[in-house]
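User: Thanks for the earlier help. One more: Ureidoglycolate hydrolase. Can you show the sequence and predicted structure together?

Assistant: Of course, both are below.
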Amino acid sequence: MDRRVSRRIAVAPLTAEAFARFGDVLDTEGEPDRIINQGLCGRFHDLAALDFTDGRAGISLFRAEPRMLPLALEMVERHPDGSQCFVPMSPDPFLVIVAPDEGGAPGRPLAFRTAPGQAVNFHRGTWHGVLTPLHPPGLFAVVDRIGEGANLQEHWFDEAWTVG
């Protein structure tokens, strides 16, 4: 019997339950928590916890090249000093890759596809893939820590994983 670990990762729909140990899913599914602005605006309130060791929260705009599935996952990264939130600026789905921490290195990755209206906030220190849109324009607002220090650790796999 071949006991090698499969290097293929299936892509699952993104749900709050499946993603909970890695971060928050921001979603506009269902009714808003509050109605504001003279009844003209629904507010989905406090959907993610920003977590920084120091520094401050900042909002940057990223334009990422769309990717095709299947793709080779060669590396993941994490941010030890702060959470990081990816908010798409179009209704197109994007790919979210995460991995559990196993003694300071990433374990077997998992992959999720977002639905329209979903964004993700990675907990501080969560191993994750880079921003991976599946369609143009690949434009995202990213909320993360702005401050001194690198706040970035990369892990390059000895052998790439195949996602999708």
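User: Great, one quick takeaway?

Assistant: The first strand starts at residue 8 and ends at 9.
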